[in-house]
Design brief:
The chain has helices at residues 2-10, 72-78, 93-96, 99-110, 124-128, 137-144, 173-192, 196-214, 222-244, 248-261, 266-278, 282-295, 300-341, and strands spanning 13-19, 33-42, 47-50, 61-64, 86-91, 149-159. It is of the alpha+beta class. The relative contact order is 0.08.
């Protein structure tokens, strides 16, 4: 290990073991999956990203070695670690230049977005010199002024090739197309069991997979349209999960996007109507519910039930607001009377 540490230092990577790991050092053949927590910091201690807090949850990074991950230095340093080891790696600029783009993708994932959202269709080096905002001030500054970074890694688990199912991003295009129906089915099973949050994650993963493939097609071409049609039912299922979880504005956005492409999509109108009703957009909700009945008259009873529920909520809200105003005016009158008699 001493010999390896000297070599790493000579390449602009300095390692400091914070807590030694256990067992023997893996050989880390290509295809090995490593699961680890990371904290990325400037050399002055300013934290850029921390997998234990990113997105409001503690979710470790999963990386498959040998798949040309954009931040190659992580693969290099991980190969010096034992399971449960914690170490700081101070890396020179030549190893960290692409970190802003990697960080943007990781932040997108933690926020439930497409990992490639906001990135231009060009290579990483070209993006660095394009002066294109990454949507985060700290990353824009780092992109404009590259500097050494400190990566604090905790290696949690090492899985040998063949002992796990490949993550979507590590699959070939053919493998992605094959696995999407399986992920869709897994999402349906989870939803039917009441595991809504997990189901939403499955649908989101399948959507991200297809959108990744779609980026390789020209918008409007046959291949692009075919993938878009595959995305639509997954997006509707995802919206159903978000409705249950109270993410109404996200549902409004996604369903409006679907309707802009398919103006007769009854399911999108129905889910959007429910979301409108939930955020007190009565006029918009009534218009969408009317469109649902127009597209499928057999849903008249279901729509009537939803309208009654919305009207009851509105009536209850108005009654509650009147009560608050009444209490407020009563308080003002009493205060005035006390001041007068005093």
């Amino acid at each position: 290990m001493e010999e390896l540490a000297i070599k790493l230092l000579a390449e602009g990577i300095q390692k400091k073991v914070v807590s030694p790991g256990k067992g023997e050092l893996s050989t880390f053949p290509h295809g090995t999956k490593v699961i680890f927590h990371y904290r990325s910091s400037l050399c002055d201690g300013t934290v850029l990203d921390d997998s234990r807090t990113m997105g409001g949850r503690s979710k470790p990074m999963e990386l498959i070695l040998g798949k040309k991950f954009k931040l190659a230095v992580w693969e290099r340093v991980i190969a010096t670690m034992r399971e449960e080891e914690v170490a700081d790696f101070t890396c020179d600029v030549k190893h960290t230049a692409l970190y802003p783009l990697v960080s943007q993708s990781l932040r997108n994932i933690s926020a439930g977005k497409d990992p490639l959202e906001g990135q231009r269709h060009c290579c990483g080096i070209a993006q660095i010199h394009s002066h294109h905002s990454l949507g985060h001030c700290d990353l824009d500054q780092l992109q404009a002024n590259p500097q050494p970074l400190v990566f604090t890694l905790e290696l949690m688990e090492v899985l040998t090739p063949g002992s796990f199912r490949l993550d979507i991003w590590a699959m070939t295009d053919e493998e992605k197309l094959e696995v999407v129906p399986q992920i869709h089915a897994e999402g349906n099973t989870l939803y039917n069991k009441g595991d809504v949050k997990e189901a939403a994650e499955k649908y989101h993963n399948a959507i991200a997979c297809l959108k990744n493939l779609q980026m390789k097609e020209r918008p409007g071409d046959a291949g692009w349209i075919k993938l878009d049609l595959m995305i639509m039912p997954l997006m509707l299922n995802y919206c159903q999960c978000q409705l249950v979880q109270g993410q109404y504005y996200e549902v409004l956005d996604h369903c409006s996007s679907i309707i802009s492409k398919d103006e007769d999509n009854m399911k999108a109108y129905f889910k959007r109507a429910k979301a409108h009703a939930a955020v007190w957009n009565e006029t918009e909700a009534r218009a969408d519910f009317a469109k649902v009945v127009e597209l499928d008259p057999s849903l008249g009873l279901s729509v009537a039930k939803e309208l009654r529920a919305m009207e009851e909520r509105i009536h209850s809200k108005e009654k509650e607001e009147k009560g608050r105003y009444k209490s407020l005016f009563s308080y003002d009158s009493n205060a005035l009377a006390t001041a007068t008699t005093g």
